[in-house]
Amino acid sequence: MIISIHQPDYIPYIGYFYKIAYSDFFVFLDDAQFSTDNMHHWNNIKTPQGELRLKVPVENKLGMKINEVRTRDTLKWKEKHLKTIEMNYKRAPFFEQIFSTFSQLLLKEYSSLAEMNININSWIANSFKLNTPLLLSSNMGITTTKETRVIDICKVLNGNTYLSGNGARAYQVPEHFADNGLTLTYTNYKAFEYPQLWKDFIPNLSILDYIFNCGFDWTLIETHLGGKLDGNR
To answer: Which domain of life, per UniProt (predicted)?
Structure first.
């Protein structure tokens, strides 16, 4: 049973959904501490001039959890993001098919940044027809922190394998997982080239870049990454 865990990021890249597809359970770590360094409230799209960062203005104080942080909607940032996205992707093959639903989801009123990101990311995963159950860490009643929290989440879900992002290699200890009956593995996702607007290919942009250009075509992703990823391996 493969478990993966990640903070609810804003319109994340393909690799985020790769982890979902490759897991038997995916947990949104919505009660993790908010960080301006991580991609909880920003991501990059492509323009004729290159990458452009879309950043969500938020109301936050030091130590707040992602599910406590609210977006500053009075600044009309949602309308600005949508206008910027439309300007740069309206020529993309699947723009008309997808943009309306994305707009409706983004423009809804949410209680927190986490709720907004989870709503949008769940819609994207479902549109890719990924069947992995999506859970919230805040519903699990787990009070431990850091690596111990990850291990405890896996144990609650009866997992035997934890699929981690590569950024955690620096501080995770395989023996700590093994002592709890868990195998620690790392994602082998690698960026691949797909049809894209505006000159040279840029990897690891927001998932919006992929779905506007290629639609919700998970088969194309599987083809490039080598086989169907449906958990239980």
So the answer is: Bacteria
H helix or E strand, kind and range, residue 107: helix 95-107
Q: What is the pLDDT of residues 186-228, one digit of tens each?
A: 998 999 999 999 989 999 999 999 999 999 999 999 888 875 4
Pull the structure tokens for residue 194: 């797909």
Question: Are 34 and 4 in contact, with CB atoms under 8 Å apart?
Answer: no
Given a contact cutoff of 8 angstroms between Cβ atoms, the answer to whether 229 and 4 are in contact is no
Other beta carbons less than 10 A from residue 51's beta carbon: 13
Q: Spell out the residues 6+ positions from residue 34 whose beta carbon is closer than 8 angstroms to its own.
A: 40, 41, 58, 60, 64, 65, 66, 68, 69, 113
Q: What's the pTM?
A: 0.94
Distance CA 125, CA 26 (A): 11
**What would the pLDDT profile of 113-131 be if each residue is shown by its tens digit?**
999 999 999 999 999 999 9
- Parse the chain into domains and list their residue ranges: 2-225
Tell me which residue of 140, 142, 202 sits closest to 14, measured CA to CA: 202
- Tokens representing 141 are 């009643």
HSE (CB half, 13 Å, CA atoms) of 201?
Answer: 10
User: Which of 59, 99, 95, 60 has the alpha carbon at shortest distance from 82?
Assistant: 99
CA angle 36-13-72, nearest 5°?
Answer: 40
- Measured distance CA(2)–CA(160) in Å, rounded: 6
Closest CA to 210 of 76, 72, 94: 94
Q: Do residues 4 and 162 lie in contact, with contact meaning Cβ atoms separated by under 8 Å?
A: yes
